[in-house]
Design brief:
This protein has three domains: about 120 residues, no CATH class; about 130 residues, Nucleotidyltransferase, domain 5 (2-Layer Sandwich), CATH 3.30.420; about 90 residues. The protein has 17 helices and eleven strands. Strands 6, 7, 8, 9, 10 and 11 form a six-stranded mixed sheet that branches. It is elongated, with a radius of gyration of 31 Å. With about 475 residues, the chain is an alpha/beta fold.
Length: about 475
Amino acid sequence: MRVRILLQVAADDGGGIPEEVACFNKPTEQAEDLGLSIAEAKVLLAAVQERMVKAQATAWIERHRCCPFCGTQRRNKGSFPIVFRTLYGDVALRSPRLHRCPCQAGSGPAKSSLLAELIPEHIAPERLYLETRWSSLAPYAAAARLLADVLPVASGANADTLREHTLEAAERLEEELGEERPSFIKGCPADWQELPNPEGRIVVGLDGGYVRDWKDRKSNFEVIVGQSRPEDRDARYIALVHGHDPKPKRRLFETLKSQGLQANQDVTFLTDGGEEIRSLTERITPASEHVPDWFHIAMRLTVLEQYARGAAHLDKAAGTRLLDSLESIKWLLWHGNHFRAAQEIELFEDEVDGLDVEYSHLGKFVRTAHDFANYIAANAASLINYGERFRAGERISSCLAESAVNAVIGKRFAKRQQMQWTKRGAHLLLQIRTRVLDGTLRFEFERWYPGLANDNTGAIQATAA
């Protein structure tokens, strides 16, 4: 069977001569002979795309050849080549250069390129979107191979190109981010009371993860990752490189704002209690609270229990007292008795300092006890009655932040493969990846390129019918 595929590009007046764009000899002997193969589909798509783009570019040039102010046709000054990178292949075009119209003497450049005005980035927005999206989900080289496997884009589909395009898109998002402020609280309580009732509490889990540093390959740098989960709206991710991001509070505020944040809305920040993350949550919204999550408190107590059990092998009486004290501290913290818990922690510290045993980990035990005391003291104002909140069915653990760290960092930044990153590259890629995981990256591209929102689905279906 010989298959000829013709394309007719019809003008508004209905003209246009059909042109052969592909011809295939298709035997029908085996299952793999049926339909188009990937290679044949690539040839067909590339041929159709080339003719469509050239026809559209020619029509656009003809419509804009005249001066938009006086209607006089502008004089030609030669042309130069432009390669337009599309989803279905790279199309070589020639862009006319036109002299400035005499009516605009003294204003603007003396010569202008028509196609440079139409396609200043020389890449189709939808291809840029796919490159950016796939690069956030897989390594740049793997995303480039995927792009070349399924689309006729062998030219330009490489890891460096995808990385450049992805980071450029992220930098555009960064430029749109508002200015950083120490506080985002506006108005007064009287104004907040006039607001409509909020839709529900927003719980934000924040935690830290680590990525291997490309510049200092023996060390890591910290990435703060979180998830904002309202009661009745879609969750959003947030991620930033600690110490590199100049607008961390603004980034967090804008994430909450995109979820309909109001000044009278309850917001709970569940964190590991670290100083950096705790300061990030301050003065974001008036009805917010910071809560050190129970998981991190319990883990610190578990480590102290292990040390106490080791000491009990050498001094049973002292070890038993320490274990009983830890159990009491845990009970007091769980039930929100912070004053008694602080007293018990102080007594526990003194007893650990006074241990007189030949315990190999005694120094670590002492340091861990002091660190725990400092941790509780630093977060004293944020401690709550965990038992009461747990029984009420509310969150007391930042497990959503732990899962966010795995989703955002672990599956792309390849901790097991020991991939290395610059702080800039990691931070910018995080901004794309969080939006891909949210499902909001497409909306950003449609805002930049409104034509992407019109996918011509209705017209295609009507033609097919």
